[in-house]
Amino acid sequence: MNPLRTLPKIDKCLAHPLFQDANATWVMKIAREKIETLRQALLCKELEYVDEEALMLEIKKAYDALFTPSLKPLINATGVILHTNMGRSLISKTLLERASTVICNYSNLEYNLEEGCRGERYEHVSHHLKALLGVEDVLVVNNNASAVFLILNTFAKAKEVIVSRGELVEIGGSFRIPEVMKQSGATLVEVGATNKTKKSDYENAISENTVMLMKVHQSNFSIEGFSEALCYEEIKRLATQHSLLDYYDLGSGYLPKLPYNLGNREHSLHEILTCNPSLISFSGDKLFGSVQAGIIAGRADLIAQLKKNQLLRMLRVDKITLSLLEESIKAYLKEEWEEIPTLWLLFRSIEELTQRALHVKEVIGEPYCELVKSETYMGGGTLPNRKFPTIALHVKGKATLLERKFRENFVIGRIEEDKFLLDFRTILPHNEATLISIIQRIIGY
Ligand SMILES: *Cc1c(COP(=O)(O)O)cnc(C)c1O
């Protein structure tokens, strides 16, 4: 028999029970490609005949791969609340539902309902955000990196900005203050030494080209021991004395008093705002606990200038961001902490985590696991060197093997002293049942 006759027709593929509910266009496209490859293989005698069932399964596999989402939900059992690789802040389902009324309908995003004419996209969050922060005006851009860029480009292009050497940070590998400054057109004037910057260092560096004194939060590292830096209040005072702008890139701004003593390095937004800064900026999705956004707050005249920069058009936020951010801000105003998952997770007490971990331990059974007290970090380039108490379930067995097996089941844990741990600081209560069945499967119930 002619081997080419063993090639099935496309129609036959489409009619196969495997593709009963599949999209015919894509089944055909994939089938055509596979059949063509097989035809070539038959013609040059690399293949003797076609195994039809194997072919169908191969088409099915390619079809499924096409529709398997690349972004997958994970159970974060690392204990790191703001995990940069796992999406930073979570959005609560309630807030998502509230925001969906705007996202899934036409809205007045840029429409002035009173006048019946074009309106301003940035007006929407500004009302609530100004109330929350108690500032003159605000502006929201794509992320905090763009906020830094926009501010420097608007006020410091072809001018000098003074920054302490100890604050020339790199965040997540792709954001380096000196590089961002160069790109924005501003000239960086570094002052002080890595560990020490004094008031006189700033004073000596001020020239007629200086426009701004900038403070950058060290975010993901800290300089301990023999070190000195100016607090924001002093920088602000110095800037005012010399008629310069002051700007604080806060990285991760947070609002409520946190349940842990953070020492005198980490100030809340309210504390910083009491110095009346010209401008500050922070991320929407770090400790603030909302969507990815860059929030700029400060003097109304400066915000107005930022709005005139053409760059803003490139950094502008979508209605999805604005409506989610607005819902987060309203949750803040109403003190609905459970709707700000980042804070909610941070605020869980050790007793509560222990109870939940104990429940899982009892279901799994004594010989397979035990509870351990441990410590974790905030993550997301925030609160470096600050450990938080936590409770973890130690799943007994070879740690590296368990780490891989859990990862294959979309559970990311951590290894500590050769123990594989599932940290309850970041395990969401609604994921607990799933987690239990995954543990049972892996330890071979
Ligand atoms: C995180 C961070 C940024 C970047 O913020 P994104 O919202 O990630 O763009 C900038 N500056 C500092 C100090 C930061 O900590």
TrEMBL record:
<comment type="function">
    <text>Converts seryl-tRNA(Sec) to selenocysteinyl-tRNA(Sec) required for selenoprotein biosynthesis.</text>
</comment>
<dbReference type="GO" id="GO:0001717">
    <property type="term" value="P:conversion of seryl-tRNAsec to selenocys-tRNAsec"/>
</dbReference>
<feature type="modified residue" description="N6-(pyridoxal phosphate)lysine">
    <location>
        <position position="286"/>
    </location>
</feature>
<keyword id="KW-0711">Selenium</keyword>
<keyword id="KW-0808">Transferase</keyword>
<dbReference type="GO" id="GO:0001514">
    <property type="term" value="P:selenocysteine incorporation"/>
</dbReference>
<protein>
    <recommendedName>
        <fullName>L-seryl-tRNA(Sec) selenium transferase</fullName>
        <ecNumber>2.9.1.1</ecNumber>
    </recommendedName>
</protein>
<dbReference type="InterPro" id="IPR015421">
    <property type="entry name" value="PyrdxlP-dep_Trfase_major"/>
</dbReference>
<keyword id="KW-0648">Protein biosynthesis</keyword>
<comment type="similarity">
    <text>Belongs to the SelA family.</text>
</comment>
<dbReference type="InterPro" id="IPR018319">
    <property type="entry name" value="SelA-like"/>
</dbReference>
<dbReference type="GO" id="GO:0004125">
    <property type="term" value="F:L-seryl-tRNA(Sec) selenium transferase activity"/>
</dbReference>
<dbReference type="InterPro" id="IPR004534">
    <property type="entry name" value="SelA_trans"/>
</dbReference>
<keyword id="KW-0663">Pyridoxal phosphate</keyword>
<dbReference type="Pfam" id="PF03841">
    <property type="entry name" value="SelA"/>
</dbReference>
<dbReference type="InterPro" id="IPR015424">
    <property type="entry name" value="PyrdxlP-dep_Trfase"/>
</dbReference>
<dbReference type="GO" id="GO:0005737">
    <property type="term" value="C:cytoplasm"/>
</dbReference>
<comment type="pathway">
    <text>Aminoacyl-tRNA biosynthesis; selenocysteinyl-tRNA(Sec) biosynthesis; selenocysteinyl-tRNA(Sec) from L-seryl-tRNA(Sec) (bacterial route): step 1/1.</text>
</comment>
<keyword id="KW-0963">Cytoplasm</keyword>
